[in-house]
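> Could you send the YfhL family 4Fe-4S dicluster ferredoxin prediction when you get a chance?

Sure thing. Input:
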Amino acid sequence: MALMITDDCINCDVCEPECPNEAISMGPEIYEIDPDKCTECVGHYEEPQCKQVCPVNCIPFNPAWRESKEQLMDKYLRLQADAK
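Output:
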């Protein structure tokens, strides 16, 4: 599953630079995560880095975007290939 940022976000700016896939960007009011780019850091780290640094714990799993670890790895590999 991809991650999402809830309305509890305080726009502290710490999550955006931690995302290795550049899936986090500023939305109209709070930061948002692009589910097409979010791999939960699979392929990069053991744990999602945005969740690790979030001071208000407002980055849960997105229940509308369910993906297995294998699907996340496939997405990671596709994103890496697209970046070349």
